[in-house]
Amino acid sequence: MEVILRNKQDEMVLADMCVKPGEAWEYCPRDALRRASKILKDEFDLEMNAGFENEFILLKSITREGKEEWIPFDSSPYCSSSAFDAASPILHEVAASLHSLGISVEQLHAEAGKGQFELVLKYTVCTKAADNLTFTREVVRAIARKHGLLATFIPKYALDDLGSGSHVHLSLSRNGQNVYMASDRSSKHGISTLGKEFMAGILHHLPSILAFIAPLPNSYDRLQPNTWSGAYLFWGNENKEAPLRATSPPGTPDGLVSNFEMKSFDGSANPYLGLAAILAAGIDGLRRKLSLPEPVDTNPNPETLQRLPASLSESLDALNKDDFLKEFMSDKLLTTIKAIRKAEIDHYTKHKDAYKQLIHRY
């Protein structure tokens, strides 16, 4: 994926990485997602839809003892009107800019962390959703800069405060109809057989998928128990502690589930590679007709549930032992991804304060 800024036209476009016209470069993330989407369509006549919830922190610059520091611009609580009022010039401009790009904003509000906000995008087919997310991140950061602030999507800016995720809601459609949702109330959990198998594949491969959707050592500072980020391997119905959460938003017929949320996805993840890995895992579930275990709808018990990787090293180990992605991504791309993750681990190990510089990258 390549982002190109054209200042004269005040325009931003996305471009594919190609060896030559019509031939994708084997390292192109957008092509990886398209390949996985084509397999889902060709084999099952299905499309995966995605809608992202973007959490970010607005920071302001101060000078302390001659050094520049970035601190949250506000300390108001969750859904505070004062926080929204203080940031309203930025937030209104962000919403208007995204609207001009054809990107629908469903919700925009102050979150629970210091200086933290959440921007929710309307769901669409996953390839388009990844583009929308890329544009959204660029728009938010550019407009914050215009107003003298820095917007960061880093997973954990302050280790003593709440982290920021990029939760993604997923569903399956066929001919425009939601087929993740059961057709009637006879399904035990309101999810179709296709939906259960797809979700089971993702749950089965989740430890290795984390290397794509939580790609930094800092990501695992966020993925902690009792923080609504999903630290254990299970799924639940409206369970905020579940990494995979079945949801029934307003308007969904009673007893049915319209989509499921993945809590582990964060703002440092490449959306194309992250969705491609998720899609590949779901396809594996459909092919093998994997069974979805019973949900856990209480606070997770660490004595009975498997802990998800608590570090990028553990997730990378899980990925090295899992070969389901070979059909969906080239060996060179997978090798490169693993090498980059290893380099991130090495850098983080040598520089304990490395996360503080991530605000300028994410």
UniProtKB/TrEMBL annotation:
Has UniProt tagged this entry with the keyword Ligase?
A: yes
Entry's family note: Belongs to the glutamine synthetase family.
The segment(s) forming the GS catalytic domain are: 29-362
> What PROSITE patterns does its record include?
GS_CATALYTIC
Pfam families registered for this protein in UniProt: Gln-synt_C
Q: Which domain of life is it from?
A: Eukaryota
Tell me yes or no: is Ligase among this UniProt entry's keywords: yes
Q: Which organism is it from?
A: Glycine soja (Wild soybean)
Q: Which UniProt keywords apply?
A: Ligase
Give an example GO molecular function.
glutamine synthetase activity
Q: Which PANTHER family match?
A: GAMMA-GLUTAMYLPUTRESCINE SYNTHETASE, TYPE-1 GLUTAMINE SYNTHETASE 1
Listed EC numbers: 6.3.1.2
Name listed for the protein in its UniProt record:
Protein fluG
